[in-house]
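pinning this so it doesn't scroll away 📌
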Amino acid sequence: MSDRAARLEAAGLTYAVPAGLPGSSVRPPDARRYEVIDGRLVVTGVQPPAHQAAVVALMVTLKHACPPDLLVSVGSLDFRPTRRLSLRPDILVTSRAEAGPQYAQKAVLAVEVLSPTTRVTDVVTKRGLYAAHGVPAYWLLDPAAQELTVLRLADDHYVCEAVIQGEEAFTTTSPFPVTLSPAQLVG
C-alpha cells in the first residue's frame, strides 16, 4: 500500500487496488497465491492435488479442535503485520477479534504445506518472517514424507517442538489442544 493509499484509508476513504494484489477486494480467478515480501510481489502457482488434500484434512482437524474465539482460515486471509509484508499461509489461525475481512495483523499459528516449488520459501524465508513478526507457532507439513514439523517461538526464533512422522500421533496445546498424525492428514 502506498503512503497516499494509507492516508486515504486512515481518512476513511476508499481506494482502488488491482485485482489479486494484497488489499484488493477481488481475488484472482487463477488460484495462484499472491504475497508481498519486502514490497515485492511473489506469485506461487497452483499446487498439486496432494497439497490441497493435505490442507483440507488439516483444516478440518483444526476446525474441530478450535475454540470459538479463534478463527481457522484456509487461503482466504492474509497475514499482514506491516504494509510491506503480506503472506498467505496455507492455514492461518488468528483471533476472531483480530481478523479483518481480508487480513489479520496478528496470528497464533501459521501452517505451510510443503511442495517442491515452495519448500525453500516455506522452510527458510517464511520461517524467518513469521518469527520476526511474533507468530507463536509455525508448522510445516510435508505430504511426500508424511512428516509434520511443529515449531514454537522462543524469543525471536523458532525451536523445534516435535517432528512427527507417518502414523505417529502428537498432541499439542499451542495454539489449542489438538492431536495430529501426518498419515491421517496426507493419506
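📌 and the second one:
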Amino acid sequence: MKIFFKRIIFKFSKRNLVKIGIASIVLLLNSHLLFAQSPWIALGKKTSSLQLEKGFSSFDAGGFTLKLVKSSQTVAGLLPKSVKGFDFVPGDSLKVRSADGLYHLGDINLRLRTITDTAWKSYSTAAKRKPVKAIAMKNTLAAADLSETLAADIPLTIKRIWELKDGKLVLRFQLSNKTSKAVEIGALGIPMIFDNILDGRTLEQAHAKNVFYDPYIGKDAGYLQVTRLSGHAPSLIVAPIGKTPFEAYNPLNDDKTPRGIAFEGFYEWMVYSKAYAEKEWKNAEQWNTPTSIILKPGETRNYALQFILAGAAKDIESKLIENKRPVAVAVPGYVLPKDVDAKLFTKYEKKIKSIEVYPFGTLTVKVAETTKKGWNSYFIKGVISGRARLTITYADGLEQTINYKVIEPESEVIASYGNFLTTKQWFNQPDQVFKRSPSVITYDYEKQQQVVQDSRAWIAGLSDEGGAGSWLGAMMKQLVHPDQTEITKLKQFVDSVMFGRIQLKDGPKKYGVRKSLFYYAPDSLPKDTYSKDINFKTWSAWPKKEADDLGRSYNYPHVAAAHWVMYRLARNYKGYIDETSWKQHLIDAAETGMAMVNIAPYYAQFGQMEGTIFYLILNDLKNEGLNEEYTRLENEMKKRANHWRTLDYPFGSEMPWDSTGQEEVYVWSDYFGYQDKAQVTLNAILAYMPVIPHWAYNGNARRYWDFLYGGKLMRIERMIHHYGSALNAIPVLMDYRKNPDNFYLLRTGYGGLMGSIANITKDGFAPAAFHAYPSTLKNDGITGDYGSGFFGYAVNTSSYLLKHKEFGWLAFGGNLNQNGNNIILKPTTAAKSSVFVAPVGVWITLEAGSIDELDYDPSTGSIRLKLSKADEHTPRAILRISQPAKIAGVLKYSLKDKTIGKRGAYEIQLSEGNTTEVILSK
C-alpha cells in the first residue's frame, strides 16, 4: 500500500492540486488509500498459524517448481520454469496472510451431514490450522492426512496428495467415510488462490507479477483460466481429472485478505453446492443444478484438479484439446437474439450421448454436418427469452454445460431501451433547487421509481458515469435507432439542462463539465429538501463546491458524445432537428475535448472511458473540412498519446488498476502509428476479457468495484457485463478488422459487444450490471453507469462475414444463405449500418440508411448491397468504404458508377418503394 501512496502523492504537483481541487484529492485518499491500508496493517498483526519458521519443501513438478509450506503442505509458490521470478500464487504476501481463516491453494471446504441429520456442518482446513501429518505414498510429490487441521468430529478422513500425472501437476483429495453412517457431502469447495492482489504495486509491477482468473462453470468440462495481466505467456489452466465437476463458483468472503478496488477477492471451485443452494443461495437460480453425494460407510472417493501450462489466452482452447478436454465454440456467441441462426461447434474424443435443454423449449438444437477435423456441429435457435442451459452428455459419462442468454431481436431490444429511457426515466417535474428537469435520470427498477436523491451525489446528479449513464444511453440510442419522439425530448434536455447546467455554456470556463447537479447542503436549503431515509453523512454526498468542480476529465466524453450525436442527426437526416445546426453541434463536441485537456488536465493524462468519441469527432472535423478545429484537437490528442508512449503500460486511471482507459489508449496509439503501445494495450485487454462457453463470462471485461459507485447492491463483486465489456470491444474489434485471420479477436470483441445488451430487460430497463455471486445471480436494481457501455455498443455494432478454415462460412450479427457460389448476408443488428467482409478486408459503414442484404461473390470479390428503402427522415444513404486489413492481392474497393462526395463519403438517393442496389468492386 505504501508504494501506491507514494505514486499518488508524487503525481499531485502544486499546479495540479489547484486544478483538480484539494477536496477531490482528500476524497481519493480517503476512499482508496485509507480504506485499503488499515486492514493490511491489522492483518499483519494477526498471529501466524502456518508455522513458516519450519520451512518449505520444493519439488520439480513438470513445468513448475512447486513450493509447499512444510507444516500445512499448502502452496507457497507455483513458479513456471519458463518465466524467471514469476509466481502464480501470492507467495510474496504469504507471511502477512499466514493466520487462521486465510486460504491457500491446497485447502478444502466441506459441508457435511450424516444421513440421519437435517443440519449441515461446515469444515475447513483453513479455519484453525494445525500441522498436518505427512504420509508416505508411492508416486507422489507430497501427501498428508488433514485430520489434525480439521474439527475432531468430522466423519471423514481426508488425505491430500500432490502428484505428477502424464507430466502435469495434480492436486488430489481422497475422502473416506470413517463412520458407520452414510455421510452426505452437500458442499465441497477447493479454494483457487492465485495472485490477483494488486495492493501496493505499480502498474508495471502488477503487469509483471499479477494474474486474473476466470471460470468456465461447465460441470465436468469446466475449467479455470489464469492469465497474467500483461497478456503474455504462460497462462494456467486448472481442469478436473476424473469426476470433479465445476458446479459453482463461490466467493471466499470469509477470507480476511482486504478486499477493495485493488483486490477482488478469492473464489473456490465448487464440486457440490446443494448445502449452499438450500440456504445462502435459495433465492437465486444457479448456473448448474446444485447437487450433493452420499458417501457410504467405508466408501472412498477421489477429487482431483490438474494444472496445465498454456501460452497466451488465445492458446487455451488448443491446449485443452491437446489434453483431451472438451471445447465449445459458439457463433456468434452465447448471447443469442431470437432472430439469429446460430451455430455451436464442440470437440471431444468421445461421442455425444445426449443433449438436453433447460428450461425446456428455450432453445432448439439441430445436428449439422461434422467438420473435416471432427468437430461436432449444431444449429442453435433461441426461442424463449432468458437464461438457457445446454447439457451435453458424452459416452464416457462426462457432462458439459453451456449457458446461453436468449434475448429479443436486437432492434426490439434497442427500441425498448430507448422507450424506457424517455418514458419511465424521463424526469420532467419542478426541481427549483437542482434544476435537472427535463432529463433522463437514474431509475430504481425494484422500486419502479426514479432516483432523485442518493447518498452518492452523482447518482441523482446527472453527471459522472453513475448519473450521466442514462441520458448518455438515450443519446447514443439515437445513433443506432433514431426516433422522432425521443429525439424531441432529448433536444429539450440538451438545450436546457446538459448545455448550460451540466456543462458551462459561457464564461472563462466555457465547456467545463460539472461533477453533479445534485449536492448536499442542508444548512443553506429548506429542511424538507433531503429525504430522512438516506444517510448523507458520507464522503460521497458532495457539497455544492465539490459538485460544481470541473476537474474530473471522465465527465467530458459523455457530454461530447451528446453533442456529436446531435451533429450526426442534423447532418445526416431530415427533420429530426434543425439541419442547419450541424456545424455548431460538431464544434461544441470538439470544444468539449479541448476543454477536457485544458480544464481537467490531471485526469486527462489517462485514457477515458468512451474516449473513442474524440477520435470520431476528429474524423468528422476532417471530413467536414473544419481544418482549424481538426488541427487543434489532433494536436492535443497527440500530446496525450506521446505521454502514453513513454509508459510501459500506458493505461493508468484514477484507480490503482482499471479496465476502461485501454479503449482510448489503443485508439490513439493506433491512429498515431504507435503500434507497440497499441499491442501492449490489446494484450492487456485479452488478459482480462476471456473467451469462455458461458454468456456471463464470455467477453466480460473484468470489473469488480463499480457496484459501490454505480449500483444499488453495493459490494466488491465480479460484475457481469458492466460497461467495460462493450468499451473494450472497441479496440478488440478494431484490431480484428486489421487482422481478419484472427478469429479469437472476433469472438472476444463480439462477446463483449453483445454482452453489453444481454442484461436489458424485455421492457427496456438496463442495469448497471448483473451480479455474479451465486447468492444473487440477477440484475442490479438501478440503471447506474450502464450508458457508458451502450456507447460502446452504439459506435461498434456491426455484422461480420468470414470464412473459417474449419467451420466454413460464418456470420456474426447476421444470417447467411448461399446462392450458388454467392454468399448472402442478412444483417440482424439493430442499426444494420455496417458490415465487415473479412475475406477482402472491406469495412462498409453507413452514417444514414441501412443495409437490408449483402451479396458477396468470392470468385470475383464483388459485393452487392441492397439498401433499405427511404423514409421521411432518410431520403439518402451516406456510405463509406475503408480497408483496414492489408490483404495481399486485394485492390482498393469503390462503388460502381458512383463518385465520392465532398465529405469523403458516397451519397446515395434511396428509392421510396424498393431497396436500392449498389455494387462494390475492385
